[in-house]
Structures are given as structure tokens and as C-alpha cells.
Amino acid sequence: MYAGTVTADPLAALTETRRRTIAAVEPLSQRQLDFSLAPNRWSVGEIAHHITLSEGIYRDEIGRLIALARAGKRPYLRRTFKDVNVSPLFLPTALFSMMEIPMSIMSRFIPESVRSFMTEFPLVPTRNPDIATPRHGIPAAELRELLARGIDATRALIATNADLDLSKMISEHPLTGATAVPDILHFLMLHERRHQGQMERVRSDFRFPPS
After folding, report:
1. Which of 16, 90, 128, 154 is the most exposed place for a label (fewest CB within 10 A)?
2. Which of the pair, 87 or 46, is modelled with greater confidence?
3. Which of 100, 98, 119 is nearest to 110 (CA)?
4. What's the rounded Cα separation, in Å, for the pair 194 and 190?
């Protein structure tokens, strides 16, 4: 059930969400993984690859924050639309630079419950960041390995830095606002749930091929 707040153990919630993603992908054939509803629509395999790419981006970001803390520096990162060009589809790319300050201010006033709801449920179509664009036709075994290896790497990163206060490590983006590491893990969980729904819509289409 949607709660609207960061869970007590966001890493455990992300791990369970990944287990469900792997379970959904596991029985699918290569043909099923590569099937898409239209030329510009992602297949289940592409959705799964996007999930692993997104996790990798944020895991690297968490690693950078941890490195700053270990070096005795302020664990804070500020990203721009140039770094990660995710945005609502209604916002033209030409306006990105002009909208950074207004959107940064606006994001500070959006309640966490609203932000979480909009992350999990695709009410507002968003533009996928270029660095998280998936590849079509990844072999099934490789895709499953990427999903499993990704969550293992994220869990290991958090476990090996359990002595640090991750809630004091902040990353900020004009669209998502200021987020601490537990918030990032919570976001990844909601983001993955969103794409699980997308996978299910592909699989439930009458054109989805039999195994």
C-alpha cells in the first residue's frame, strides 16, 4: 500500500522490490523480453535494463557522497538538468537552463507524500534521462544477472559504510529537490515499482507473444 513517506528500512524495501522484478523477468523468453507495443515503446527487457541503469547512476552518486564524507568534506552534491536531463515531458529541453532555479524553489514546497506518489504512479509523463536510456535485445541471462548484481552492489555499498550517518549526505536536483541517501533508496524503490507496472501493461497486452 502507498504510504507517502520513506520506509523505516528503504534498502530492505528496495531489495524486496528487486526480488519481485527478477521474479517477473525470470520466466520470460528472449522473444517476450524483446517484444514492444510500438517502435517508440520500451520492451520488458528495456524496462529492466533502465532499472539497472538508474540504480547504477544513483549508486555512483551515493558513492561520491560517501567519499566526500570519508575525506572530511561536506557530503553534498548539486546536479543540474545538464547532468541528469530528467524532466516533465511538457517542459521543452530549450527551457531547461531557465527553469532550474524556479523548479528548485518549487520542489522545496512539494510534500514528500505528493513527491512519492508522483514517482510511483505515472500521472505526469516524464522524459527519461539520456544516461539511463536502455539497450534493446540484451540476452536474457545477462539481463537477469544485471538485475541481481545491481542490488547486491547497492547493498554492499550501504553495508560497508554503516558507520556513517547516511541521512546527512545530500544530493540536490531541480526536479527532485534535496534528498538524503535514505531518500534516494526510497526513490529507487518507488521508481522500480512504477516500471513494474509498465512491465505488467506490456505483458497483459493481447499481442504479447507466448513463450
Report:
1. 90
2. 46
3. 119
4. 6
Dihedral sign for Cα atoms in the order 66, 68, 72, 76: negative
What is the spatial order of strands in the sheet that 76-78 belongs to? 76-78, 170-173, 177-180
Q: Where are the beta strands (DSSP E) in 20-162?
A: 76-78, 87-88, 126-127
3-state secondary structure of 206: coil
Report whether 182 contacts 189 (CB < 8 A): no
The three three-digit cell numbers of residue 161, written as one number? 559504510
Q: Domain 10-203 belongs to what architecture?
A: Up-down Bundle (1.20)
Contacts of 141 (CB under 8 A, 6+ apart): none
Instruction: Count the Cβ atoms, other than its own, within 10 Å of residue 60.
Output: 11
Domain ranges of the chain: 10-203
User: How many Cβ atoms are within 10 Å of 1's Cβ, its own excluded?
Assistant: 3
Question: HSE of 179 in the Cβ direction (CA atoms, 13 Å)?
Answer: 25
Cα separation, 208 vs 211, in Å, equals 9
Radius of gyration, CA atoms only, the chain: 17
- Residues 87-113 have pLDDT tens digits of 555 566 655 566 665 655 556 666 665
Q: Which of 55, 74, 80, 76 is nearest to 158 (CA)?
A: 55
Give the mean model confidence (pLDDT) for residues 161-168.
96
SS3 call for 177 = strand
